Amino acid sequence: MRDVAAQDWHAAVLAAREDGYGWFDWLGCVDEIGVADELRVVLSLRRLDDASAPELLLQCRVPRSEPRVDSVRDVFAGAAWHEREAAEEFGLEVVGGDRRRLLLDASVEAPLRKDEVLAARTAGPWPGAKEPGESTEGGASPSRRRTVPPGVPAAEVWGDRDPDGPPPDPAEVAAASTGGRVRRRSR
Amino acid sequence: MRWVDWYGDSSLHVLDVALACCSLEFNAAAPAAAGPAVEPPVDGRTAVVVSGTVTDRLAPAVAAVVDSVRTRQQVAPVVVAYGVCATTGGPYWDSYAVTKGVDVLVPVDVYVPGCPPTPAALREVLDGVSGRAARGATA
Amino acid sequence: MSAPEPVVPVGGPAHGRIRLIEPACTSCMLCVRECPVWCISLDSHTEPDPDVPAGARPRTVNVLDRFEIDWGTCMFCGICVEECPFDALEWDDAHPAPAEGSLDLRHGIAELA
Question: Which residue of chain A comes nearest to C48, CA vs CA?
């Protein structure tokens, strides 16, 4: 894995191709929220003169708030499709890239960011919210904390939070998708 | 997407809307005598089988195809949702990119559960559609 | 040279459907919560435990009122069967039948037996 500064991305990919890594395999993106406030852009190349040589992975990191990377579709035409996918799934801005949406409806924004909650999981009641001994008609004590399903942040973080309070912390929302439901009182 | 002359005798034409993995079970369900068809006769008996996940991107095309059959045929086709993806969205029910069942788009006559269902389940449904089940004939 | 032995699956019936053994269910909600597609739901209530010996602390038991699997959504992963601590769910050969209405694919305690 070769780490590249974001501003050197295009030059590094071009240099790798000229160095013999002439076959573009894939370009992907990782949301590092919870670890760092960054998106990681990763690209895999292979050598044409030696198919058994290991792949070359190049990666750069861009801030989540301003995720910008240069397009490399002029170096590898096939990268254009992967850049479009990363752009619409992660909200990555690919400078000089193909700006067309690839697959998603215009109303869907960066769904693969980890602080994006699956709306379907919040639309209706979760069958698992009930406790043993409880029926749909009621029976649970009203003061008892309601369980939220996996993938949905606790109500006070995301759904029922104070409208005058600060916006939900993306890292906290992202943590909900891994099953962490207890709000850590960090402030 | 293609028309299949299900019994090879023009008695039932099935539109294979092959969207995902359930389409492999559709292929396994087709009787040995099944053959390709260009189009059914407008007064013929037809069925539309939607096999697999309906993505939001593809939903308009799926709706258009089924609606065109319903418009063209004198007798309404039997629309079959084959597998849970076509029934409710199945394992992808909570996806940001999936239509939660083809009945969001078009009326469905029969829902076949399973992930995937067996090929036999589809054969039985289509035997019922063609009237073969009632007569006791096998495909 | 004789033909190879056919491979016979061992360990239980084909994964046609999942059946509920109602007397074993304690309404613990584990299957409901572990199901990745939320296709299981149940209702229960509590009653005093009739088997408490005289003089002992009163206890309650859960009584299952309703148990439902939506075959229109079930993806046959088997997590519920594995997770049930009381072996109240098991695989079965019979496949749930197709239905004309998707709501008819929701099977209750009687159909899941």
Answer: A133
Instruction: Report the pLDDT averaged over residues B50-67.
Output: 96
User: Which of residues A65, A95, A125 is at a domain's end?
Assistant: A95
CATH, domain range C17-47+60-112: 3.30.70.3270
ipTM here:
0.91
Low-confidence ranges of chain A (pLDDT < 50): 180-187
Q: What is the pLDDT of residues C68-79, one digit of tens each?
A: 999 999 999 999
The residues facing B2 across adjacent strands are B16
pTM score, whole prediction: 0.87
Domain with A130, as residue range(s), is 114-187
- Select the residue of C36, C72, C99 nearest B88 (Cβ to Cβ): C72
Which of A48, A26, A51, A30 is CA-nearest to residue A40?
A30
Distance CA B40, CA B5 (A): 8
Contact C60 A133 (CB under 8 A): yes
Name chain A contacts of B94, Cβ cutoff 8 Å: 118, 120-121, 151
Chain A residues with CB under 8 Å of a chain C CB are 126-128, 130-137, 139, 147, 149
Supply the CATH number for residue A82's domain: 3.30.460.80
- Phi-psi region for residue C75, left (φ > 0), alpha (ψ -120 to 50) or beta? alpha
Q: Are A155 and A121 in contact (CB under 8 A)?
A: no
